[in-house]
Write a structure and sequence with these properties.
Arc Repressor Mutant, subunit A; five-stranded parallel beta sheet; 195 residues; alpha/beta; Rossmann fold
Length: 195
């Protein structure tokens, strides 16, 4: 499909900072306008400012869980479409998601291509004029990547920008040095060059 997605607004509700940032980068790269929230409560406040067309929701959030948030969002904005992204899927959660007519139930880590297809399906379910105009060329070079691969690319690029300075890299990424060292150690074991 061709065209642009600049009219569609995606609300990402994810409490894990790295995952939130990766999702935001990927979805913005596909041409969507994006807002991010760390909790269901924060997401509902953001939705009042700009109504989302699609909500990408983690199930396990602090306070209000993802499905409770989406239920409340749907009461306020019945046309909003939902995509659930979770590392811990249960049959009961899937049943609730079906009841709420969620477009897709994705488990982490998912391929970016799956996420992009889910967003396209969500847009097609929106009332006109959205589904007639919205869809874009995929972000170049990321079609078959998983979120883990995109994260690795993001971390190594930040390390390069900081000339191998791991403290500055961790600060830029908003993660602890320990987390960064652990990730870099994993990448080296996988055969990637780490400066």
């Amino acid at each position: 499909m061709t065209g642009t997605r600049h009219d569609a607004h995606v609300l990402i509700v994810e409490d894990e900072p790295r995952m939130r940032e990766l999702l935001e980068r990927a979805i913005k790269g596909w041409g969507f306008s994006v807002a991010v929230a760390r909790s269901g409560e924060e997401a509902l406040r953001l939705a009042e400012t700009t109504a989302p067309d699609v909500a990408l929701v983690d199930l396990n959030l602090p306070g209000m869980d993802g499905l409770e948030f989406f239920g409340k969002l749907r009461q306020r904005f019945p046309q909003a479409q939902g995509i659930v992204l979770t590392g811990f899927a249960s049959v009961e959660a899937a049943r609730q998601a079906v009841h709420l007519e969620v477009v897709e139930f994705l488990t982490k880590p998912c391929h970016l291509g799956e996420l992009e297809q889910a967003l396209d399906r969500a847009i097609k379910k929106l009332p006109p004029p959205h589904h007639e105009q919205l869809a874009a060329a995929p972000m170049t070079g990321t079609e078959g990547m998983t979120l883990n691969e995109l994260e690795r690319q993001h971390i190594l690029a930040a390390l390069e920008r900081n000339n191998g300075n791991r403290t500055a890299t961790a600060q830029e990424l908003g993660i602890s040095r320990r987390t960064l060292y652990y990730k870099l150690e994993e990448y080296q074991k996988q055969g990637f060059h780490v400066s």
